[in-house]
Structure formats: structure tokens, C-alpha cells
Automatic annotation (TrEMBL):
GO terms for molecular function: serine O-acetyltransferase activity. Gene3D superfamilies: Hexapeptide repeat proteins (2.160.10.10), serine acetyltransferase, domain 1 (1.10.3130.10). Belongs to the transferase hexapeptide repeat family. It comes from the Bacteria. The gene is cysE. Its EC number is 2.3.1.30. This is Serine acetyltransferase. It holds the Pfam family Hexapep. It comes from Falsiroseomonas frigidaquae.
Length: 224
């Protein structure tokens, strides 16, 4: 346990731009506490004590604001930054060196038993508010942008953004240079692109309606 606490604190100090001290990393990061508490809950789950495991995870949620089902499998050095509102489902699997921001859901789309939650391979980053849903696989080193909704697999090293999540501007998977889930260029905005497309379509429809009205007026004049 002491080794894992040290490992988690080292990860926080290395990856958080705030560069907290060792004391801060160990005492003031809910993500670290949630992971440690999950080890206890998961151990009880594997021992065949589901009620005790669920009660343990319930206490952890109350203390940290992070809900991790005791059945979820979590690798080493998971960094849950800020963490409030994170939900990780029962059959979720998380690899090593994964970074998850606040408001993320690793959820299911089916109420049927069996594998129904995502699998995150090593070194995946999930942006704030993102929803990763279903028994899909997010490949090694992939990045999911903030508020994206992912319902299909993501290839290793790929960055996806938007609803539904896809690579920026429909380009092949790439590693952006500005934060997570953003392209290198300012105009790489899937939502903006959709709005621009709708505006263009609206302008075309207005032009067509105006032409039809003009033709109708000309017909009326000829009739007179």
C-alpha cells in the first residue's frame, strides 16, 4: 500500500501543472484517495462479499465525489484529476498511466449482464465531461476531448472530439499539439463546422424560396 501511495503521488506531481508538494499530493487529491479506497472495495468484491464491497465504494463516493464500482478493474498510476462527478461502471477496465478528468462517465448502454462498460488501454486521456459508453476499447495512448460522447472504438494514438466523437475535421487520427482533444489549428472545431454547414444550407434554401416566389409573381402577372 505504501508503495502504491508513493507511486500515485509521484504521478500526480509529474502530471499536474500545479506541481504540488509530496504532502499535498498525498493528502489533498481526491483521485488518489478514490483509487486507494477502490483497492479495498475491489478486494472485498473478489472475496465474494458484494454487500461489503458496495458499502465500501459508497463511503468512497461520499468522501471523494468519485464513484467507482467495486467490480471495475484499475491498473497502476491512474490519475483522476479534480475527480468530482467521475463514474466508472462495474465491467470497466482501465490500464496503466491513464488520466481522467472530472465529470467523466465510463458507462454502459445495455441493461443486460456481461461486459457492458469500456476498456481503456495504457496511457489513455479522457477529457472533462466526456462520456465513454458501451463495451468499447479505447486504444493505447488515445485521447478523448472534453464533453465528447464516445460510443465506438478508438484506435491507438487517436484523438477524438465532438458528438459523436471523431477525429478533428474528419482527418486521420493525430496527436494534437494544443492540450487534449484539440487540433493544432484554431479552426478545427467540429461544432463550428456543423453550424457553418447549417448556415450555408439555410442561405441556399432562402435563395431557392426567393426564386420560387419570383417565378410565382411572374406567372400571376402573365395571367393578368
Amino acid at each position: 500500500m505504501a508503495l502504491e501511495i508513493t507511486e500515485l503521488a509521484r504521478t500526480i506531481r509529474a502530471r499536474d501543472p500545479a506541481r504540488p508538494s509530496w504532502v499535498e499530493a498525498m493528502l489533498c487529491y481526491a483521485g488518489l484517495h478514490a483509487v486507494l479506497w477502490h483497492r479495498l472495495s475491489h478486494g472485498l468484491w473478489r472475496l465474494g462479499l458484494p454487500a461489503a464491497a458496495r458499502f465500501s465504494s459508497h463511503l468512497a463516493r461520499w468522501l471523494t465525489g468519485i464513484e467507482i464500482h467495486p467490480g471495475a478493474k484499475i491498473g497502476r498510476r491512474l490519475f483522476i484529476d479534480h475527480g468530482m462527478g467521475v463514474v466508472i461502471g462495474e465491467t470497466a477496465e482501465i490500464g496503466d498511466d491513464v488520466l481522467i478528468y472530472h465529470g467523466v462517465t465510463l458507462g454502459g448502454l445495455s441493461g443486460q449482464p456481461g461486459k457492458r462498460h469500456p476498456t481503456l488501454e495504457n496511457q489513455v486521456t479522457i477529457g472533462a465531461g466526456a462520456q465513454v459508453l458501451g463495451p468499447i476499447r479505447i486504444g493505447r495512448g488515445a485521447r478523448v476531448g472534453a464533453n465528447a460522447v464516445v460510443v465506438g472504438p478508438v484506435a491507438p494514438g487517436c484523438t477524438v472530439v465532438g458528438i459523436p466523437a471523431r477525429p478533428p475535421r474528419g482527418q486521420p487520427c493525430q496527436d494534437p499539439s494544443i492540450g487534449y482533444g484539440l487540433g493544432a489549428a484554431v479552426d478545427e472545431d467540429p461544432v463550428g463546422e456543423q453550424l457553418a454547414s447549417l448556415r450555408a444550407e439555410l442561405a441556399a434554401l432562402r435563395t431557392e424560396v426567393a426564386a420560387l416566389r419570383a417565378a410565382e409573381r411572374e406567372g400571376e402577372c402573365e395571367g393578368v
